[in-house]
Amino acid sequence: MATQREQDAADYAKTHKIFELMDNLTSMLFFHRPEKPREFLIEQLELLKLSRQCGVRGPNLFTNCDLDAVYRILDPANQKYITFAQYKQALTTLGITDINESPEGVNEDRISHETFKTEGIQGLQRYSATYAQP
């Protein structure tokens, strides 16, 4: 059983998304492998602060091009749609946990590239917004 102090620490970490922040920063650090890691981390934190202030996309490993590539992999026959299951699995694989369960095209089980990309960008923004309160 956790002590009150341990519970307070766990609540603090959850409220302030500490684990998500550290996971995001560590992933970017290992992916980019900058010569000056401390300066890189400071820059990423400044970008995160700017994201919060201006409402722009925060630092993240995945770009629009990555979302395009994932979609092309899921639609190799170029049918111009993927299934809802593919959409959901792809976004989950990208680390997006709060997926829109009813995106445009869900009733027909045909998620377009545009919808996938829009939902992906929004999900990545939410994921990288580690400053946001739950």
Brief synopsis:
The chain has 134 residues and is mainly α. Helix content is 61%, strand content 0%. The mean pLDDT is 89.
> How many strands, what sense, and barrel or not for the largest sheet?
none
Mean pLDDT: 89
Envelope shape: globular
* Content of β-strand: under 5%
Order of helices and strands: HHHHHH
Oligomer class = single chain
- Compute the number of strand runs: 0
Helix/strand class: mainly alpha
Radius of gyration: 17 Å
Please mark out the parts with pLDDT under 50 across 5 or more consecutive residues, or reply none. none
Distance between the termini: 25 Å
Helical region count? 6
- The helix fraction, in percent, is 55-70%
Describe the structure.
By secondary structure, the protein is mainly alpha-helical. It has helices at residues 4-15, 18-32, 37-54, 64-74, 84-93, 113-128. The longest helix is centred in the middle third of the chain and has 18 residues, at 37-54. It is globular and about 50 Å long.
Features of the shown structure:
134 residues; mainly alpha; 0% strand; globular
